[in-house]
Each structure stands twice: as structure tokens, then as C-alpha cells.
């Protein structure tokens, strides 16, 4: 089981209130004026440091021009000198010409909309309602009549409208699988990159998605956003595109829900039912004739479409079976009516308002029989049963190569085939997937999809088909299915989510789907519970802290109810929830939960258990974040002593405790002790750049800064920030915190210009990504105030610090030690400001 420790609190050095300013722009200086000292070196490095683009052409007159190999051209400036690879110093005016970015090419299509269905039926009555709503510039929500399932053709109709909009000249078209909020965020983030939305840099999906929603508000072009398969309108509310003020934008949503909330916000519901008899007959006729199977039509055709309930999905399955097996309408009708219908428990008569739900299951089972007959391996049934418990929107094809899934299939294949073919290979599973695809049971893109494109949902099973398949699972087989799915998904999960964030999103969605359709069994199987824990830590790793809080709160309630509040996994669940609270600045909630957790762990597991140590260490970290320094130091020192006694001085858990203890020492002026703790750990870990090692270097740089060893602090912190940006992305919360600390290093080294250039955009990023009340946002603003003051921008410094103090007093209580220190500093700054006026 993966255990997550809360991050160490970041210290605030005493020197953060001093600084100079750097505008962040390239400057031209007389190199002879400053020749020595660290400050002079940094200024020379900043002047023309390679951040400028090469001019597109050389001046025509050729006067006084100097060009560096790295791409800077200067003209009409007099003498110039070039030193090193990146530096240039010029006396006079510096002109840099940059080529403009390439204009956006329209249209832009984002997502993977389905192609128009073969034998597509226009359904004129439905189109009339949609066009009427469109004329009123209303958002259109397609709501199917079949409650809780699919099959009425709403997505195909939406796809038809999507391609028509493209043909009509709509500039931006976005197709989103909206079954889970995480999928919406991922597609919106991609759209933000396509349209170059302000603030979207490709590093943080949630921030990019928000930037895209903000971009839509401006109505800069004609756009269409399709939200396909909305399963929870309330959870999607924050991501629903804004109303089109100029009438240039449209939102088209498909959903199985009929919630009244869908009718609010200017939306209009158009209900989709089954085909009319004429449409159903036209569909079957066209489908058979286009496949070269017109000879399968006979006098039973009308009776057959009626028996199928006129349902598009049922007709599709039936047509596929007839074509593949060369079965005429009359013979298929006899097979269909002889079958036992199996969907009564899932769609009882009271919920089947249109009277055609049960026939879909019969059509599905006929196709499954055809696959079984064509499958020499005997894998069709167990594979379909496992498929039915995954996310209908899709899962990676690599799942069918995992050891856990292959073990399950070997044990569960049909008995007569099990004896003949004892081994189960990935090639066999691939062959069965292709059979499923052939008979219309699934969509399988595994032969054409490349994981590098970001599409990890290559195998998809319609939700209604999945329901029918789950209906056939025997109770005694369900545990094996859940274990195989859980272990297979866990095998695919990367150790660090950031190495493949698209895969992590898909795995989280499949974990949720498994838990939703087999909840009781999931909680009974340890492997499945571990998968749910992994999905929760994945949210924390991705920096999606708000989503993580909601997720862990749900797990805590379930774990305590099902396993008992004293169960080891329930205790770990509360610990992860507390970590989520701490990450968003809810330190009071975190401490309350952690104190309860420590008491429960000591009572249920004993004082020496590893989980008890983690609970106590996390409580100490929260004390640090809340400014309760003496309590934090006392608790962490005791944890360190216990871990050393029972685990040894080289154990990672012991070293991590020392790293967490270091910021407490810094805050009480024991910086030398912090350095003595951290330097040996950093030396032992060498050049490793895993997240824990980066934290060691981060804290060591802080300690160097407290001791005014800036020549060591700044290069080390700059490397930490670069490594975090490379590993985690520029908008990850840990990267933001690193840039804040680097800014404080600059302030402490009288490099106020560099500090301001770094901290001003970082404040905006922190507020945008974490919110204005997050501890990192507050700290970054405080450091920026100090930088302003050092640069002589005193009025701005006072205004920023005044707001920070007010926010801290409201959020952390006025008695918080750091808040008290900042309030005293603010009063001093105001006195100095008044004295200057007089």
C-alpha cells in the first residue's frame, strides 16, 4: 500500500522583507561600470541572456551591426562587445526584432467525435426541436428517454450535428466525453492549447481548462462544444461552457439524466426516443444494402424492427449479427423471440417508459453467441465480463497484456478450451477484441492508436451493453473479475503519475467505474481497495487538491462504515484526507483529524507501528504549517528518535522525519542544526532527482539562506526549481512553492529585481491555481512585499503586506506567531512611510 506523508512546511526567513526590483526585461549596460562581485555577474548574465529571438533580417544599411550566434541582431548602436555563448553588452540603443507567432489556423477540431453512423437516420422531428433551440441561441441538451442506459442514438445525432457545424464554417469544435469531470478537464486543457488561451501553458490540466472556459466567454469566433454522456450534471456545473453572449457559440450535451437542473442556465432539453417505424425500417434496409446483404431482407422485416423495440442500438446489434452470420430477417426474428430476456432486474417495467429496454439484452446475447462460435480460445465470455466492469468511455489496450488479466482469463476460459489451450497469450486476447469489434459489441482502436498521441481509451464498451453483460455474471465469479481488473489497472499505473498524466486520468476513471458497478465486492477485496487508494494519491500527485478532498471524504465515510473506524485502512484513509486539507490551507481541519488519527493508531496498532509513526509525523508537519512551532519540534524530535531506535539511522522514514524537522529549526533560529541534519542526507542521495530528494535539496537551500550562505543557497534552489518544472510541470503546486522560495533567496541576496521578476507572475499563478487563501499564495505575496520595499517601492510594499496580514489574521488567527511578526513589520513600515512624508 502506498503511504503518503504530508509535505514539510516552508520556513519564512527573517530577511525576506528586504529587496530590489527587476523588471524582467532585457537591459543594456556599460560593462565597464561593474566588474566585480556576485551582483555584477548576475546583472551581466541577465543582459541579453538568450531569451530574445533572432531578428528576421539584417538591416539594409549594414551600419554598426553585431550578431551573436545565439540569435540577437543589433543595428545603429555604435560599439558592441560579445562575451561567452549567451551574453551581449551594448552601448546605446538595442533593437531586437522578433518574428510574430504564426496565426491560428481555423478550423480547430479537438477530441474524438464518432464518424457519422452508417445508415444514419435524420430524425426530422428531433432536428426540428434542436434547430428551434439553436435559433434562440440556447444551449441544447439531448436527454434520452431510456433512463440510466444508452442506445437511442443521441451521441450519433450529436456527431452528425458536429460534422455539419464543421462543414458550415464553425471555427472551433470540441468533442468531450463528459462521463467524468476529469475527462472534461483533459479535453478543455487540450482545447486551451489549441486556441492559445491566456494562462494556458500545458503544465497543469485544471488551470488550462479554466483558461479555456474563460476564453469561450469572449466569443472570439464561432464555436461548438459537445459534452457527450453527461452522467452527473451537478459535478459538471463548474465546467459547463458559458452562455454565448454574441450568439457565436453553442453547447450541445448528451445525457441519460433528466434532472431539472439541466433546464436551467438557458439550456433547453430535447428528449430523444426510439426510431419511428419508418425510420427503423429505413435504417435496417440501408444497413443491409450497404453491406451487400440485401438478400437478407424478407417479409418479416417490419415485424423484426417492431420486436427490437425500434431502438437504434438494438437494431445495430441485430444488423451486425445478421450480416456477419448471413441470417435473414425471418430466421433472426425466430432466434430473437426464442431467447430469454435478461434485463428485467436492471430495467424493470416501471423504469422502461418506452417499452423497448429488454430487447436490447437479447440482441446483445445473440451477438455474443456468434463471437463464442468464432472464438477458438474460449475467452469471449470472461473477457466480456471483465470489460463490463470498466469505464464505458474506454481503457488502455495494454490492460489485456497484464499478468493479472492473463491469469484470470486462463482460469476462467470455457472448460473445453481450457484443456486444449492451457496458455493465454496477449495475441489471443487481441484476436477476441477484434471479434467483439466485428460484431459491434465494442469499439476497438488498438490497431490504429498510438499511446504517444495521448489517446489511452482505445477499447470502449457501450454502457448499456455492459449492463447486459454484467447481468450474466454468476455471483461466485464476481470476486475474481474485480481482483483481475484491480490488479491489471494497478500494473499499468506509473510510479510517478507525471510521467504519463493522460494515462493517470484514464486509470482513475476506470477505478471509479469498477467501484461504481461492483461496490460491495470492491470493498470486500483488498486488491480493489488498494486501487481506490492509488487513485486518491494520484489526485494528490496531480495537484488536484479540491477534487482529492471530495474523493477522500467519500472513502473515509465508506471505510469507517464498512471496515470500522479502527481498521488499518480506515486510519490511512483519514490520514490522506488530512493531507488533502493541509494542501489547501485547511490546517485546523487537518490537525483535528490528525490528532484523532494519532490516538486511534496508538490504541489500535500500537506506538511502534509504521502507520502510527506516519500519523504523528503528519501531525507535526501540520503544526508547523499552523505556526505552532514548539509543538511541532517536540513531536517531530520524538518521532525521529523512535524511528532511529526501531528502524535505524539510514532508513528513509527516519531521514524524512529529519527533513520535516529542519524547517522547525529554521523558524526558531537553529539553522546550523538544520544544516547538520540535511547535508549528510543530501550527500547520501547523490544525483538522484526523485521528489523526496528534491525536497531535501529544497530544505538545504533554505537553511543556507538563513545562514546567509547565499552563494550556496541560490544555485541549489535554482536547480531544485528547474528539476521540479521538468518533472512536475510549471504549474504544479510544488513548483510554485519552489519559485516562491527562490524569490526569497533573491530578496535575501539583495537581488530585488530578479525577485520581483520571479514573484509577480508567481503570485498570479498561485492565486489562479491554488486560490488566494492557500499558504503558498500568502507566502508568495509576503515575499513580494519585501521585494517591493527593498526596491524602494514602499507604498506598494505596504499595500501588499497589509492585505496579507488581514488574510492571515482571518484564516490563521491573529495569535499565529508568523502573523504577529508580519503585523509588527507592517506597523513599522507604516511608521517609516509617515515619517518620510513629514
What does this structure look like?
The protein is α/β, with parallel strands linked by helices and 838 residues long. Among the domains are: 31-90, no CATH class; 108-272, Rossmann fold, CATH 3.40.50; 277-308 and 312-355; 651-837, Serine Threonine Protein Phosphatase 5, Tetratricopeptide repeat. Helices cover 57% and strands 6% of the residues. The strands form four sheets. The chain has a six-stranded parallel sheet, sandwiched between helices. It has a two-stranded antiparallel ribbon with strand order 1-2. The protein has a two-stranded antiparallel ribbon with strand order 3-4. Strand 1 (66-67) and strand 2 form a beta hairpin.
Features:
Rossmann fold; disordered N terminus; alpha/beta; 838 residues; 34 helices; 12 strands; globular; 6-stranded parallel beta sheet; two-stranded antiparallel sheet
Amino acid at each position: 500500500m502506498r503511504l503518503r506523508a504530508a509535505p514539510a512546511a516552508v520556513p519564512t526567513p527573517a530577511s525576506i522583507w528586504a529587496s530590489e526590483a527587476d523588471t524582467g526585461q532585457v537591459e543594456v549596460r556599460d560593462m565597464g561600470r561593474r566588474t566585480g562581485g556576485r551582483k555584477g555577474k548576475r546583472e551581466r548574465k541577465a543582459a541579453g541572456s538568450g531569451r530574445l529571438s533572432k531578428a528576421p533580417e539584417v538591416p539594409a544599411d549594414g551600419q554598426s551591426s553585431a550578431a551573436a550566434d545565439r540569435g540577437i541582431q543589433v543595428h545603429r548602436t555604435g560599439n558592441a562587445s560579445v562575451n561567452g555563448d549567451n551574453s551581449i553588452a551594448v552601448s546605446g540603443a538595442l533593437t531586437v526584432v522578433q518574428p510574430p507567432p504564426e496565426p491560428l489556423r481555423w478550423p480547430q477540431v479537438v477530441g474524438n467525435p464518432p464518424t457519422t453512423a452508417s445508415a444514419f437516420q435524420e430524425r426530422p422531428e428531433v432536428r426540428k426541436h434542436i434547430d428551434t433551440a439553436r435559433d434562440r441561441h440556447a444551449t441544447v441538451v439531448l436527454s434520452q428517454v431510456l433512463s440510466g442506459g444508452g442506445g437511442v442514438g443521441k451521441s450519433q445525432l450529436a456527431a452528425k450535428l458536429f460534422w455539419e457545424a464543421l462543414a458550415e464554417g464553425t471555427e472551433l469544435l470540441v468533442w468531450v466525453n463528459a462521463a467524468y469531470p476529469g475527462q472534461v478537464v483533459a479535453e478543455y486543457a487540450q482545447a486551451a492549447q489549441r486556441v492559445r488561451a491566456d494562462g494556458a501553458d500545458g503544465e497543469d490540466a485544471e488551470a488550462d481548462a479554466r483558461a479555456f472556459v474563460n476564453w469561450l466567454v469572449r466569443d472570439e469566433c464561432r464555436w461548438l462544444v459537445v459534452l457527450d454522456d453527461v452522467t452527473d450534471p451537478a459535478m459538471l456545473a463548474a465546467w459547463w461552457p458559458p452562455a454565448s453572449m454574441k450568439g457565436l457559440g453553442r453547447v450541445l450535451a448528451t445525457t441519460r439524466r433528466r434532472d431539472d437542473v439541466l433546464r436551467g442556465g438557458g439550456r433547453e432539453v430535447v428528449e430523444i426516443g426510439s426510431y419511428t417505424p419508418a425510420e427503423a425500417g429505413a435504417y435496417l434496409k440501408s444497413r443491409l444494402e450497404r453491406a451487400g446483404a440485401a438478400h437478407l431482407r424478407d417479409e418479416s422485416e417490419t415485424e423484426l424492427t417492431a420486436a427490437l423495440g425500434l431502438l437504434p442500438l438494438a437494431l445495430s446489434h441485430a444488423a451486425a449479427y445478421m450480416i456477419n452470420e448471413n441470417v435473414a430477417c425471418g430466421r433472426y426474428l425466430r432466434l430473437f423471440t426464442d431467447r430469454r430476456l435478461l434485463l428485467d432486474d436492471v430495467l424493470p417495467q416501471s423504469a422502461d417508459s418506452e417499452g423497448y429496454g429488454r430487447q436490447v439484452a437479447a440482441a446483445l446475447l445473440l451477438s455474443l453467441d456468434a463471437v463464442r462460435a468464432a472464438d477458438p480460445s474460449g475467452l469471449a465470455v470472461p473477457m466480456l465480463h471483465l470489460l463490463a466492469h470498466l469505464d464505458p468511455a474506454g481503457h488502455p489496450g495494454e490492460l489485456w497484456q497484464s499478468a493479472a488479466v492473463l491469469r484470470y482469463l486462463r482460469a476462467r476460459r470455457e472448460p473445453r478450451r481450457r484443456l486444449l489451450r492451457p496458455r493465454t497469450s496477449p495475441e489471443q486476447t487481441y484476436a477476441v477484441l477484434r471479434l467483439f469489434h466485428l460484431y459491434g459489441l465494442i469499439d476497438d482502436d488498438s490497431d490504429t492508436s498510438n499511446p504517444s498521441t495521448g489517446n489511452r481509451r482505445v477499447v470502449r464498451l457501450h454502457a448499456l451493453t455492459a449492463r447486459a453483460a454484467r447481468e450474466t455474471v454468476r455471483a461466485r465469479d464476481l470476486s475474481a473479475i474485480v481482483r483481475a481488473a484491480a490488479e491489471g489497472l494497478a500494473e499499468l499505473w506509473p510510479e510517478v503519475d507525471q510521467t504519463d498524466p493522460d494515462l493517470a486520468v484514464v486509470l482513475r476513471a476506470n477505478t471509479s467505474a469498477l467501484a461504481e458497478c461492483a461496490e460491495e465486492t470492491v470493498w470486500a477485496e483488498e486488491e480493489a481497495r488498494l486501487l481506490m487508494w492509488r487513485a486518491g494519491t494520484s489526485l494528490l500527485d496531480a495537484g488536484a487538491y479540491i477534487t482529492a478532498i471530495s474523493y477522500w471524504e467519500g472513502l473515509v465515510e465508506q471505510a469507517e462504515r464498512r471496515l470500522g473506524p479502527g481498521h488499518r485502512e480506515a486510519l490511512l484513509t483519514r490520514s490522506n484526507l488530512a493531507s488533502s486539507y493541509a494542501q489547501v490551507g485547511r490546517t485546523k481541519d487537518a490537525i483535528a483529524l490528525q490528532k484523532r488519527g494519532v490516538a486511534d493508531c496508538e490504541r489500535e496498532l500500537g506506538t511502534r507501528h509504521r502507520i502510527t509513526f506516519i500519523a504523528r509525523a503528519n501531525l507535526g508537519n501540520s503544526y508547523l504549517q499552523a505556526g505552532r512551532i514548539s509543538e511541532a519540534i517536540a513531536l517531530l524530535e520524538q518521532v525521529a528518535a523512535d524511528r532511529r531506535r526501531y528502524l535505524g539511522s539510514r532508513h528513509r522514514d527516519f531521514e524524512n522525519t529529519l527533513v520535516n524537522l529542519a524547517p522547525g529549526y529554521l523558524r526558531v533560529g537553529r539553522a546550523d542544526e538544520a544544516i547538520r541534519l540535511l547535508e549528510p542526507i543530501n550527500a547520501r542521495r547523490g544525483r538522484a532527482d526523485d521528489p523526496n530528494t528534491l525536497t531535501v535539496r529544497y530544505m538545504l537551500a533554505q537553511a543556507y539562506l538563513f545562514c546567509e550562505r547565499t552563494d550556496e543557497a541560490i544555485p541549489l534552489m535554482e536547480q531544485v526549481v528547474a528539476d521540479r518544472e521538468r518533472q512536475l510541470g510549471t504549474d504544479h503546486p510544488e513548483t510554485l512553492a519552489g519559485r516562491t522560495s527562490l524569490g526569497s533567496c533573491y530578496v535575501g541576496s539583495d537581488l530585488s529585481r530578479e525577485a520581483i521578476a520571479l514573484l509577480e507572475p508567481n503570485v498570479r499563478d498561485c492565486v489562479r491555481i491554488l486560490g488566494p487563501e492557500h499558504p503558498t499564495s500568502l507566502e508568495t505575496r509576503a515575499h513580494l512585499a519585501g521585494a517591493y520595499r527593498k526596491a524602494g517601492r514602499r507604498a506598494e510594499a505596504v499595500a501588499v503586506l497589509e492585505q496579507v496580514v488581514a488574510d492571515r489574521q482571518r484564516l490563521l488567527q491573529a495569535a499565529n506567531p508568523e502573523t504577529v511578526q508580519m503585523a509588527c513589520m507592517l506597523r513599522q513600515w507604516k511608521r517609516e512611510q509617515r515619517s518620510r512624508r513629514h
